[in-house]
Amino acid sequence: MAVNPLQAERLIRDLLELYSNAETRMLEIIAKELADNIYAPDWAAVKLAEISRVKSKLEKQVAKLDKKMPEVAAETVKKAYTTGQKGVEADLKKIKPDIRTGFGMIDERKVTLLTRQLAGTLGQTHLRITRQALDEYRSIIGKASQMVELGVETRQQAAQRALNEFADKGITGFKDKAGRTWSLHSYTEMATRSTTGQAAIEGAIQRLQDNDYDLVIVSFHADSCPLCGPWEGQILSISGKSDQYPSLDEAIAEGLFHPNCGHSLGAYIPGLTEKPTQAEMGKGDFEEAQEQRRLEREIRRWKQREAVAITDEEKKKAAAKVREKQAALREFVDTTGRNRQRDRERI
Question: What whole-number distance in Å separates Cα of residue 94 and Cα of residue 86?
Fold first, then answer.
């Protein structure tokens, strides 16, 4: 098969870590700047006057993304593409040891195109990252000042509450082609998974075409969603010229290989390839997968809260919550038998 979900996790790890680190560092910068001399009488005026300095610190984090992201994106896409190639090569070598392999000009062009697509999508977020972080900085100053004037909370309490809200939602406002709004973490993950998945499929298809094979079979995926589930185990034609099987383009148009899809393609040789069954692939549960994702998000949320804590009390509370959520996840994976993916818990 071309690439499976666990392989995809490893492929996108470096890019996700790059953006998660940047976001966490920016949260820490804002929290530290706001906490400095928080009880000074002219705190709000001083903090607003210091916004240029804060902006400079935030821009340094984005500059690191500008520098590192293109290289990491290129490496990620090429790994995904070659993983797709190697997956079908393993299928083909079972019946024909002397298959055509190698990385040619067509492969280079496809990888370059997909890399530009991913780098362009991620690069568009960079300007907004700084702008929204500064907007939140100003907003927290305003909220804290208002609560003090109303006598509802101390400035520190109000600032902490606003920082917690910021940490919970993260840097947001990134829209996909369908108009849906994402957080930076979710948007980066969606865009990277989508492109690396496409790269793996493109690599698999190209290797099949190199060896004059037209038919592919769709894998089973334990946590398949209703959108792509109907295509599991189906035989498809790459060219669309088959009278017996639907085309790959038709399956994609109807939802197969959507962003974050965990399915893959393998070579289908009539009379030789045995269609896998759901039982052979292992039992999965879409709802269980969603619950695991929720628990992972909760762990990340409290780690973000810990990053913006400006009091010892708040830091201890967040750290305790992290341990509580980790215990809940441990119990969940022990009960369900699912694999724990620690990368998804990190910030």
Answer: 13
Residue 237 and residue 213 in contact, taking contact as beta carbons nearer than 8 Å: no
Judged by DSSP in three states, 9 sits in: helix
Tell me the two tokens of residue 246: 């639907």
Query: Position 95: which residue type?
Result: I
Q: Would you list the DSSP string of 228-262?
A: TGGGTT-EEESSS--SSS-BHHHHHHTTTT-TT--
Which residue do the tokens 């393998």 mark?
Answer: 266
**Of 219, 223, 227, nearest in space to 292 by CA:** 223
Residue 224, phi-psi category: left (phi > 0), alpha (psi -120 to 50), beta (remainder): beta
Q: How far apart are CA 135 and CA 133, in angstroms?
A: 5
* The dihedral formed by the CA atoms of 73, 191, 268 and 250, expressed in degrees to the nearest 10: -140
The distance from CA 282 to its chain's CA centroid, rounded to whole angstroms, is: 25
CB 167 within 8 A of CB 305: yes
Cα 157 off chain centre by:
33
Q: Which SS3 state, helix, strand or coil, does residue 102 take?
A: coil
Residuewise pLDDT in 10s, the chain (347 residues): 555 545 666 788 899 999 999 999 999 999 999 999 999 999 999 999 999 999 999 999 999 999 999 999 999 999 999 988 988 888 788 777 788 888 888 899 999 999 999 999 999 999 889 999 999 999 999 999 999 999 889 999 999 999 999 999 889 878 877 788 888 988 998 899 889 988 988 998 999 888 888 888 887 766 667 777 788 888 999 988 888 998 988 888 888 887 667 777 778 887 777 776 655 444 456 688 889 989 999 999 999 999 999 999 999 999 999 999 999 999 999 998 888 888 778 77
Half-sphere exposure for 9 (CA within 13 Å, toward CB): 10
Whole-structure pTM value: 0.82
